Amino acid sequence: MLTPEENELLCRVEGDAPMGRIFRNHWLPALLSEEIADPDCAPARVKLLGESLVAFRDTDGRVGLIQEACPHRGASLYFGRNEECGLRCLYHGWKFDVDGNCVEMASEPAESSFCDKVKIKSYPVVETGGFVWTYMGPRESMPEFAPPVWQPTPETNVVTTKVIVGANWAQMLEGSIDSAHSSSLHSSDMVPARVPGAQSTVTQWQRPSTDKAPRLVVQRTSYGFRYSAIRRPIKDASTHDYVRTTLFVAPYLVHIPPNNLHRSCTVHVPRDDNSTTFYFVAFGSDTVPAQEDWRKLHANRVGFDLDATYRNTRTHENDYKQDRQAMKLGNFTGIPGITNQDIVMWESMGPIVDRTQDRLGASDLAIVEFRKQMVEAARTVAAGGPAIGTTEPRMPLAKLASFEGIVPKTADWRTLGASPEEIALNAKMASGAKSHAAE
To answer: Which of 24, 268, 379, 428 could serve as a FRET partner for 190 with CA atoms 20 to 30 Å apart?
Structure first.
């Protein structure tokens, strides 16, 4: 359980909230490149940390991310004309470039210098890996952009789903680091099988274990923490363990265990206190599914399962189109798609779950660590300290890797999937923590 004050620290991201300041000190995925695919195409609405923004690609292909409200009278620039390297407000013809500079004022006299004095809020952007990224923190402390976990090389194949979810970012991320729930909630999609490791098919992920009560172990790292869920395998249970290692990369990314075809991440970017943009990313070599196949697998196809703004057609009002007949015939949830199954759980908690009332067990160890670590991080920022994940030494995100497999019981779970650089850094951190505790 958390206190009400701790729950507020964990969840609130708008305005000057400490958790929002943590997010602002990291490069954030703002939207998918596909949303503004062509020069002078229609702009896209973007909401981040409570701010209403507009993204557009200008005539030269440059991407801008600016405030939605025109500074003249507050009309929405989303409805503006994207033309000749700028976004023009329909109301009075004021036009802004990708850096937020006002470059034309149709309503003002030609000899006026007013245009030179007007600039709106804009944020720097980087486009890579199918995403447009932005940094919303102080420019003087803006870090150099580093490739994300899912782009270890420029040639890596990347596909993703996107869904706007009506729930706070923290309860969604807690779902992504909850290894135990997959054995129940996703049991019709992640099925036990006598296979050597996690195997992906067109419709299912097969796993070599029937164990629904994993033993969890957690290790703090410079970027957040890594934890392993250790289960009994179907074969060789007396000598081996089935281990799934997940990484929490603060503040918004979870690197989940891989399968035979691809690696995966979930990304939870707060739109505001009560809603989140969720991305489910698959990446790897030529065995990664095609974009539409990945979205079909998760029942997250735009124009079918989602509307044009990436909002789910399965909602609380229509009971998420749950199929009770399918449940009678053996489907555990009656809800297609792993992401949709999670969304029902996340949204059913309400926009912000009351953590003063929950009761956690042994399988919730990673969730306990997440809450403890991020509440500490928020208090550090509130006291004027640095944001988690921004101090040295730092691991390059593209060098991080999760793990999945059957290993001898003598294997050290801390090193599974970890690069030599991370093993050395984690050992150094552990040594420092012991020295500090001894003092």
So the answer is: 268
